UniProtKB/TrEMBL annotation:
Gene3D superfamilies: Vaccinia Virus protein VP39. It comes from the Bacteria. It holds the Pfam family Methyltransf_33. Coiled coil: none annotated. It comes from Acidovorax bellezanensis. Its EC number is 2.1.1.44. The lineage of its organism: Bacteria, Pseudomonadati, Pseudomonadota, Betaproteobacteria, Burkholderiales. This is L-histidine N(Alpha)-methyltransferase.
Amino acid sequence: MPAPASAHEDLLRDLCRTPARISPKYFYDQRGCELFEAITGLPEYYPTRTEMGLLEQWGADIARSVGPCRSLIELGAGNCEKVRWLLPALQPQCFVGVDIAGDFVLEAVQRLAQDFPGLQVRAVAADICAPVTLPEDIASQGRLVFYPGSSIGNFDPGHAMVLLRQMHALAGEGGGLLIGIDLPKDRRVLEAAYDDAAGVTAAFNRNALRHVNRCIGSDFDPAQWAHVAFFNPAQSRIEMHLQACEPLRVQWSGGGRQFAQGERIHTENSYKYPLPLFMQMLSQAGFTACTTWTDERDWFAVIHARA
Ligand code: AVI
């Protein structure tokens, strides 16, 4: 499907920059969602497993901290697997899955409704970068916004602050936020998680080129691009890039550009925030009284913050 006009312009502008970039949102077409699901099960990719372990172990504690919860709103809900660990403890009346991949999240909430009889479910197809509009029948009281997976780390800190403020507004008075963040750790652990031995993350990275081809009619050949992932300690982030294996000319409708051998397209950042810094960000976004759960290695944190 071609991209809407403004997305099309953004993509072309980003591709014509030096260095070029592609927004990580282009990872998540149908194939990309499947590849990401495969990543979450890889031995090297610890975040999903560690976060699920925390939700499973501390579910009752989290429910006590949250208190009565009428609606649980998951941002970037994807396959809605993580929320399964929370539903028995939180017992919300309604679950709202919000995701840019509308069909994918619709199927996922339908599966949830089958597995949790009595739970009302809604799917909202939306890019969470813009303020999210919920269906009208979602009560403004008793909302818990759930943003797991350390996805906040995929935004630059300034943008992350904007999103945290939007989440504060979405939760509303008396509501809260339950968020997962990946913490800084040994760079070998981090780099293996983003460059796995089976090459699934490499396939995920290259798949963005196929998605871009469909959006702007370009002729990127994914086989001509190498996956590059490394930890940038100055910025406390993993960076992912695609690197041209040879000199390349890429065409798209109405234009194109030359890439030198070794030239990179920056596709993703994944920030690893130290806990005290992230607490400061939550407080600047208007949240108060945070409770935190971390695993025994201090690799990942789940935080409940009151709006
Ligand atoms: C979705 N997000 C939190 C993932 C991450 O770890 O930054 C995306 C990802 N990129 C490569 N592997 C996983």
